[in-house]
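Cross-check.
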Amino acid sequence: MDRLLKFTALALICLLFAGCSASLVRQGEMAIEQDNLDQAATHFQQALDENPDDVRALTGLGRVHYTREEYARAEDYLASAHRIDPADPTAAFYLGLAREQQEEYAGAEGAYEAFLATDPDDDAAKAVRGRLLYLRNQALRKQSLQAIRLEQTLVTDTLGRPIVAVLPFTLASDSSDSLASLAKGVAAAVTYDLFQVKSLRIVERMRLNDVLAELALVESGSVDLASAPRLGRIVGADHLVNSSMEFIDNQNVSVQTGIVEPSQALFQLALTTQEEYLRVWKLQKDITFAIIDSLGVELTPAERNAIEKIPTESFPAFFAFSKGIEQLDQGNVERANEYFAEAAQIDPGFQQATEMEEETGLLLSGSVPAGQFESMMAGFVTPPPTFDLGPTRDFFNAGGERAADPRDDDDPAVETGRTSVGGTIP
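Predicted model, tokenized:
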């Protein structure tokens, strides 16, 4: 009898403490919803005083500091919550937000990847994948700007695989807009093919474009032997692919492609050719293989087969794809997405167009201000409801078969309670 009473008392004390902590957390979350950050912080801190490892209290305090734009403090609380429970989606999501606000892009990516690992709703997963693409682009831009600021201290990697950068094509001053668009698509397709060569490292288009813009080389459209060493040092390239394109007549286009060696300020002609512009896919393949041959690269059979694959023989599809690349380079993601969708619709087998349509679609959902992204995700990361544990009766009868009741001893002074769950599900 005495043992039963002691055990009952101990269990009730545990329930009361748990209920109190959970109640404090819920009050804190309600205070956040009412924009009462001071009150929210007080409730969360009281909950942590009772249980320092309360994930929701740690997450709540992290959210309070995030809303106050105290991102470093927010990160501390959210990182603690994430360490205790890596599967908590709210902690992972807000940890990503806090880190990206501090431009800790790699850490933010890790937090968002952890959020995706919690198997969220499809719409939430799509939004976060888009955010990851956006952050990776931001990280590339940051790296580019840092490289320009620190260019005098940069050391070229001479031990790894050769690094190649495919520059935008140079066009004649009187070139039509259609040729400018077509040149964008050809350069992008060449870059795509070169990524198939495992013995080479390719500078990403976005990083290259950012550096060219900062160096004011985009409008001029050319990199000469004087500017090549600096550009090569900043983007870390051993070889710069420099091409020019112009219309010969209404049906044919000519291309000249060369390899610039920045370290030696040397130019090596790789290809001079012409082709019907309607067969631009053949022209693109000729350029790609000329670059590979000039670099002295031995392709594996698998690499050669991958590069020889024609992405599309439809000129309208390739031209729409090229317009998409042009719009993307100008930062117009929505318009780029429309062109890629058009290219994929014209030729459903055009894999590059399909991939770019998907990528730009994700970017559209992820490339928004942090506040807007937080609002978009609110319905997916709101903590689940907390239940308050009120006064109890018949504790041991809460579930399952009836347990021993001390009242069976006919002692009217002894009263038990029932376990009950109270509260409102928001």
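The mean pLDDT is 83. Residues 164 and 252 are 28 Å apart (CA to CA). Passed to J.P. for a second look.
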